Amino acid sequence: MDSFASLIDGFGTALTPGNLMFAVIGVLLGTAIGVLPGIGPAMAVALLLPVTYGLDPTGAFIMFAGIYYGAMFGGSTTSILLNTPGETAAVVTAIEGNPMAKRGRGAQALATAAIGHFVGGLIGTILLVLLAPTVAKLAVGIGAPDFFAIMLLAFIAVTSVLGKSRVRGFASLLIGLSIGLIGLDQMTGQQRLTFGSLHLSDGIDVVIVAVALFAVGESLWVAAHLRRIQAEPIPVGRPWLGRADFKRSWKPWLRGPVIGFPFGAIPAGGAEIPTFLSYVTEKRLSKHKDEFGKGAIEGVAGPEATASASASGTLVSMLTLGLPTTAVAAVMLAAFQQYGIQPGPLLFERESGLVWGLIASLFIALVLLLVLNLPLAPVWAKLLRIPRPYLYAGILFFASVGAYAVSGDVVDLIVLFVIGLLGLAMRRYGLPVLPAVIGVILGPAAEQQMRRALQISDGSISGLFNTPMSVTLYVIILVIIAWPLVSRAFRRSVPSDPDREKIGV
């Protein structure tokens, strides 16, 4: 009951005129950004980080949360109408949403996505209210070896599920860890990777790294691959659902959060995996299997509810343990650090007003999304006509202004574009960006926890795995690393049926 009493206080904070205005701005900005192809919520939050330096932390995070939920919703619009996901979580939606739109059912597809996001987000946020305080209380007793093992699990899990290969994932993580090492050693005061530059002695601001890798790197990559002719979006009327469509959609809406929320809370790469699992589940359970691939409404309802619930799940591990499991959570963690706030087990005690105001604003954002975006869907569709050269030129401009505003130093602009070129190279060679950002943010903290554990054990390596929790986490890490190798070896050792016939088995 304490959680619900705190939530009511949070609504008192979130419903003040100023914070309500930030929620509306966040929802509108997030939806607009999610609609535009190639611009995700991570880039949006990264671009706005420098702008929010002068804002109250509660208002800033309410706006960030609105952007997060809004961009998740907006990504489905471009997936359905243009077959170009505006956000990675909306990739699966395009499989059935775009065929629905081509068959003249774009309005029904958009309505299904909107209601699915509302239902999935509502259930996910309720689970966040119920579980986050409990997780925070349990996390208070976690020691340095356990925290180091948790962060190592985050490194391994994220790099294993993202990208085309594990080697590329670990290469991206190594880049992030290297950037995180730049500056003064927190314990000895020695300079590391500063190359004698005083400007780098304080390290590279996480805000600059996030803006460079997401905004600058993505803008340069898209600019290098601009098509001369853009596909025209499909016209859309007022989104609505008939009784038959609602009957086919309500079960997928309820099943989606069951899949999405747990995957959002663990370091498994965000909403991409659970949305695909939701799609496969709905295909198996549907009575209209012949429609899949041609515009089955269940293939839109399930993944959209899953993606929204996954967004709520990411906030559990981010708020209670300080572990970002998605790119947006990583950038929001950087925002907490920008305000001198450290997410973790004590956050609910030290910053209870901010946390519960943020959680309450999630419910408000969901209602705003449903009320505003159902009638505004035709307006969002018109944003797809903005010429991309103008769009990405504007992004580069705001990224530069934001980076310069961090400290007012020209060196920061140079660092911004150097890391931005690094982000372009990473995309060119298929290296995922998220492991690098997580490496920059969690790398210094992981190093500090490791050295603290070794100090407690007088330098003995056993100090890193002298608790039941740390041993369990290392076993999970070994399973994640070894499982693909074991399964590959098992497949090779078992001959296929044709082979058995040839050898007379």
TrEMBL record:
InterPro entries referenced in this protein's UniProt entry, alphabetically: DUF112_TM (IPR002823)
A Pfam cross-reference name: TctA
Keywords per UniProt: Membrane, Transmembrane, Transmembrane helix
Transmembrane feature ranges: 20-49, 61-82, 109-132, 138-158, 167-184, 204-224, 315-336, 356-377, 389-407, 413-442, 463-486
Domain DUF112: 20-437
Keyword set includes DNA repair: no
Coiled coil: none
Name of the featured protein: Tricarboxylic transport membrane protein
Species per Swiss-Prot/TrEMBL record: Kibdelosporangium banguiense
